[in-house]
Design goal:
Blueprint: H1 5-15, H2 17-51, E1 57-60, H3 65-72, E2 83-84, H4 85-94, E3 97-109, E4 112-117, H5 120-123, E5 135-138, E6 146-149, H6 151-157, E7 164-165, E8 168-169, E9 178-179, E10 185-191, E11 202-205, H7 206-222, E12 240-241, E13 243-248, H8 259-268, E14 273-275, H9 277-320, H10 322-330, H11 335-376, H12 386-403, H13 405-412, H14 416-419
Parallel strand pairs: 4-11, 6-10
Antiparallel strand pairs: 1-13, 1-14, 2-12, 3-4, 3-8, 3-13, 5-10, 6-11, 7-10, 8-9
């Protein structure tokens, strides 16, 4: 009964199960690493751009536009410099803003940022261009000491409408940070998820934040005689913000032609830091892309190493199976058939490794997505582009086939007479 080529290849692979599995895993890891890096890079850029929403510019007194974006949108740190409220009102009257939403950062709750702002943050600013905020439960804040939770903040803290919290002045790790137990905040609303960094924040009105900071000032000045600070105790110096989400008025909804001139005037005449969030995010990924290239290079080296591993595995196996090859030759197998069997086995190992790699890339993408959601509140879609998966998989098969050439040539050249001599 004739034995098919597929049966011969299958028995050859399963007969060396440990080395075959090891080789397949080596190829799978390299393919998975390559696919994860490529797919997560593009998905990550889209997730970061989602946080900037439909604003044209972010105005602040930070040291640079990049720092302004990282602090004001992604809550990396509390901004160190402020903009007086009088300056904000003057800017609103002087420039053609469609909206100019003031924000103040510096407070926190259980390690999560608290942003003080106005209702315009929810009614004018769109967190994802073309998609407005949605309320999952309750309503927006309508006065001091009311707080609205981002979707991820509500999920992680377990808070809901009607709960009471005390805001922390400063981040928990800051030396001068302390809780304001004398002021209770009521949770009045929970926002629907946007997939951006704002999902992990808590939002309250500016007056609340000003009162907290003014209370600290009055305690330093008056001690126990300060009593409980109210809105009437606020001075002009207490009314300050850390950033402005701004969008210029335009007819078609896009970036107006006057945007460069307005940004230039804000920088030159007002002495402010003005950032275009999308451009800064592109710059950030331009910097990160250098690291991406190194990682992609490492993944390519791993793929080449796996191909070398296939070559060594099959070559060593061929040295041990020369007698079997000689028997096949006696039974009628041609040199070309022997060559094809070895090449098929090599390509099969690459194909199996490619399939395993796609599975590993999917698992890796889910892990990266979960980590980014937990750490930054960013929703990164762990989707693998089919064409990219096919290209990388075929590349693995091609490298494996090339790696099989040397063992196939060794099998092709196997001498029948020499390898069928009696043993001993």
């Amino acid at each position: 009964m004739a034995v098919s080529d597929w049966t011969i290849v299958r028995r050859s692979v399963t007969g060396r199960m440990f080395s075959s599995v090891t080789t397949v895993l080596m190829v799978g890891v390299s393919v998975g690493l390559m696919l994860t890096l490529v797919s997560m890079r593009d998905a990550g850029r889209r997730a970061f751009e989602r946080g900037s929403g439909d604003m044209h510019m972010l105005i602040s007194n930070d040291s640079s536009p990049m720092v302004s974006v990282l602090n004001g949108i992604f809550y990396a740190n509390a901004p160190a410099s402020y903009i007086p409220w009088a300056d904000y009102e003057r800017l609103g009257a002087r420039y053609p803003f469609a909206y100019a939403v003031p924000t103040q950062l510096g407070d926190s709750f259980r390690g999560r940022p608290v942003m003080a702002t106005t209702r315009g943050f929810f009614t004018a600013f769109e967190p994802d261009a073309g998609r407005a905020w949605r309320i999952a439960d309750g309503d927006l804040f309508g006065g001091p000491f009311q707080v609205v939770l981002g979707a991820e903040a509500a999920n992680e803290t377990g808070l809901g409408v009607g709960d009471t919290i005390n805001v922390f002045h400063g981040a928990a790790r800051d030396p001068g940070a302390h809780a304001h137990a004398e002021y209770d905040y009521e949770v009045v609303g929970v926002l629907a998820a946007t997939g951006g960094p704002h999902d992990r924040a808590l939002f309250t009105d500016l007056t609340s934040a000003w009162i907290l900071h003014a209370h600290d000032r009055r305690v330093r000045e008056l001690g126990d005689a300060a009593g409980l600070t109210g809105e009437a105790d606020l001075t002009e110096a207490d009314r300050k913000i850390t950033g402005i989400y701004a969008r210029l008025a335009s007819r078609d909804g896009g970036a107006p032609a006057a945007l460069p001139q307005v940004m230039s005037r804000l920088r030159a005449q007002e002495g402010l830091t003005v950032a275009q969030p999308r451009q800064e995010i592109q710059r950030l990924f331009g910097i990160v892309s250098n690291i991406d290239q190194v990682l992609l290079g490492m993944a390519a080296v791993v793929m080449i190493s796996s191909a070398v591993g296939i070559m060594l595995t099959l070559y060593n196996a061929m040295e041990q199976r020369r007698r079997q090859v000689a028997v096949l030759r006696v039974l009628g197998a041609s040199r070309a058939r022997i060559f094809g069997l070895v090449m098929t086995e090599s390509a099969l190992l690459g194909l199996l490794g490619g399939v395993v790699g796609v599975g590993l890339a999917w698992v890796g993408g889910e892990i990266v997505s979960a980590v980014m959601w937990a750490r930054l509140g960013l929703v990164i879609e762990a989707a693998i582009e089919p064409r990219m998966a096919l290209a990388v998989g075929l590349g693995a098969v091609g490298l494996a086939a090339v790696a099989g050439v040397a063992p196939a040539v060794a099998g092709y050249r196997t001498s029948v007479a020499r390898n069928l001599r009696p043993i001993g």
